[in-house]
What we know:
- By secondary structure, the chain is mostly helical.
- The protein has two domains: 1-43; 84-152, no CATH class.
- Helix content is 82%, strand content 0%.
- The chain has six helices and no strands.
- Helix 2 packs antiparallel against helix 3 (92-106).
Amino acid sequence: MIDFVTILITVGIISVEIAVLVVLYRNYITNWNAEKWVEKAQDGDWMVGLLSPVIGSIVDDTTDSIISRMKMELLSGQGQISRASLAEIETPEELMMKLSEELIKSTGIKNIPPMVQIKMAQGMGNLASNLLSEKQQEKGMQAVKLGKDLLNQRLF
């Protein structure tokens, strides 16, 4: 009988201790903890000091990967443009269309709408006309077919 009473008393004391700890934790300890964290957060740059090595590492890794990827895409784009078959290009229009197609493909677009390709070629043509002198433009226009020549040209 004494063993049974001892066990009940021990279980009762442990239960009371756990209940007291739960009440203290819910009402007091959590508030003290939160107040300490607020004090530390307002204290200054302690979080920056803790996280600066991690942030620096992430920035360095990300920067290196972005630079390497941009370099690879630039080299890839240059390779695509240099591999473009120049034998089948006969007129300046075909050259500009092929160049615009390869530039757009280098951005990763696979199925290029013809209007986008034409607009890109027109934009490059406008840029060239702004940069070239009148004499250079006239020399280039002599090779370009205009109006009636284009109409009479076989389409297929």
